């Protein structure tokens, strides 16, 4: 009889007990430590993004061919959206594999799926959002009785505005400030006609309102340490990430090229971004708007993970979410760190949000 078949039952029981205890002790392992699955490059990658300058790395990556060249045989299928909450619906519905998306909608996608559907894999853009208003408004109190636009209910700028109003003791509604969710081009038209007093908007729309006569009342950078907060990040469906990590790494290499292009060739980056926006919206940006918008933001692969607990808290303050989201397991920068290390660059801080609780 083989030796292994003569192991006493008591010993087997001990071994099983040790194994159970060991698995229970891994309460905070990285989410990437889940049971391995068979992986392979994907046949296609459906990628969401917005036609905004805050999504310039996505626009550059697509139009300069950086994504396509890194993805190789994987077909990239780009899909443009008007605002982040629309992307959330597509991600949760399974019609998108990855998305450049605002930080607020990224949290919402994670929360709505019980922490299952998506993972934050990289950053994209920091800054580039402002509250711009009629020049006669010089203080928060003067917003009472006014209508202020945000792109969509629950989007990143909507959360920022509603949180700021709460912090400044400004109620919403007839007795305070009316927050109206309006598509960005329509917000510009309504501001020009005097039907709204301004908006908390991403670039280039805050710069477009400034070009139309608005002034900056709040630069969102002033509300964050060192002026750094994630306006746009990159999320991937959890199942897609598990099944196609090679494809996600290729996407990140493409984004890395796009970020390096944007920071190293700003003049050409403006042209490429403007041309892409014109193709999607049938409207190009005036040079002054383009120049101003690019000075208001920073492109980075760092998701600035440490800011997300506060962003989750802000969603509750803004009334967008009923409770704060447990963000454990939300971040997975395994693929990003591999890409950065291969390029000889430092890895990013996941701020402990790459751990899951079991």
Automatic annotation (TrEMBL):
The organism of origin for this protein = Pseudonocardia acidicola
Primary location class: membrane
Matching entries from NCBIfam families are given as:
SsuA_fam
CDD domains found in the cross-reference section: PBP2_NrtA_CpmA_like
Q: Which InterPro entries match?
A: ABC_SsuA_sub-bd, NrtA/CpmA_ABC-bd_dom
What family does this belong to? Belongs to the bacterial solute-binding protein SsuA/TauA family.
Name one matching Pfam family.
NMT1_2
The keyword Cell membrane is annotated on this UniProt entry: yes
**Out of the domains of life, which is the source?**
Bacteria
Q: Does the keyword Signal apply?
A: yes
Its keywords, alphabetically, are: Cell inner membrane, Cell membrane, Membrane, Signal, Transport
The listed locations are: Cell inner membrane; Periplasm
User: Per its record, how is this protein called by name?
Assistant: ABC transporter substrate-binding protein
């Amino acid at each position: 009889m083989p030796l292994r078949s003569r192991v006493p039952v008591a010993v087997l029981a001990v071994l099983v007990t040790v194994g159970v205890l060991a698995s229970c002790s891994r309460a905070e392992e990285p989410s990437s430590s889940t049971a391995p699955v068979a992986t392979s490059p994907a046949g296609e990658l459906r990628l969401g993004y917005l036609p905004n300058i805050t999504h310039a790395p996505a626009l550059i990556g697509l139009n300069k061919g950086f994504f396509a060249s890194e993805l190789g045989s994987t077909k990239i299928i780009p899909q443009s959206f008007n605002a982040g909450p629309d992307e959330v619906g597509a991600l949760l519905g399974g019609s998108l594999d990855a998305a450049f998306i605002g930080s607020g909608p990224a949290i919402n996608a994670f929360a709505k799926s019980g922490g299952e559907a998506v993972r934050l894999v990289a950053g994209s853009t920091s800054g580039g959002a402002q509250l711009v208003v009629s020049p006669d408004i010089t203080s928060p109190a003067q917003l009472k009785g006014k209508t202020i636009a945000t792109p969509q209910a629950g989007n990143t700028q909507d959360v920022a505005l509603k949180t700021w109003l709460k912090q400044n003791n400004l109620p919403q509604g007839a007795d305070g400030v009316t927050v109206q969710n309006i598509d960005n081009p329509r917000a510009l038209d309504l501001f020009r006609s005097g039907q709204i007093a301004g908006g908390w908007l991403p670039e280039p729309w805050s710069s477009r309102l400034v070009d139309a006569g608005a002034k900056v009342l709040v630069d969102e950078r002033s509300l964050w340490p060192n002026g750094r907060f994630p306006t746009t990040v990159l999320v991937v469906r959890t199942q897609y990430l598990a099944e196609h990590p090679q494809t996600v790494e290729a996407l990140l290499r493409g984004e890395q090229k796009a970020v390096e292009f944007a920071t190293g060739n700003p003049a050409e980056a403006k042209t490429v971004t403007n041309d892409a926006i014109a193709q999607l919206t049938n409207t190009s940006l005036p040079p002054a708007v383009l120049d101003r918008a690019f000075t208001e933001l920073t492109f980075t692969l760092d998701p600035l993970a440490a800011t997300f607990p506060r962003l989750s808290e802000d969603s509750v303050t803004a009334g967008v979410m009923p409770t704060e989201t447990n963000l454990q397991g939300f971040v997975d920068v395994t693929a990003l760190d591999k890409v950065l290390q291969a390029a000889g660059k430092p890895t990013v801080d996941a701020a402990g949000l790459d751990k899951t609780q079991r």
